[in-house]
What does this fold into?
Amino acid sequence: MSLFSPTTVGDVDVRNRVSLAPMTRLRASADGVPGHLIATYYAQRAGIGLLVTEGVFPSAESRAYPGQPGIVTDAQAAGWAKVADAVHAEGGAVFMQLILQDREGVVTGVGAGAGASGE
Ligand SMILES: Cc1cc2nc3c(=O)[nH]c(=O)nc-3n(C[C@H](O)[C@H](O)[C@H](O)COP(=O)(O)O)c2cc1C
It folds into this structure.
């Protein structure tokens, strides 16, 4: 076994034992849809065995930053499907990080819950 030998994570085949840590990039559209910039970013890094995406908001309330992508609407899900297709086309594997930053969204004024707590 070496760093570059194949492995599996759950039922996902991974071509080596290197991972990309989740890193917020803030490249989504205003409505949180991941577009070609994000697909290109991850596809370019598909040689890393397992990519973990930037933190993705799973509810409108948990959005924390402008430019953060979500997985709430059909358009966002379709955008991520294209990201995954682009990574798979390069032989990579990708997991999505879901991140709940409700309170941070309130502080930055971006999340749908902003203002709800009086902050
Ligand atoms: C620009 C930037 C964005 C980041 N975004 C996320 C993120 O979305 N989710 C997360 O869990 N960690 C995020 N991190 C933390 C990195 O994943 C972390 O720095 C990396 O795992 C290395 O760990 P270390 O900083 O303890 O050495 C981010 C780090 C940087 C530098």
Notes: The chain has one domain: 12-108. The pocket of flavin mononucleotide is lined by residues 21-24, 54-55, 97 (CB under 6 Å). The two ends are 52 Å apart (CA to CA). DSSP finds three helices and five strands in the chain.
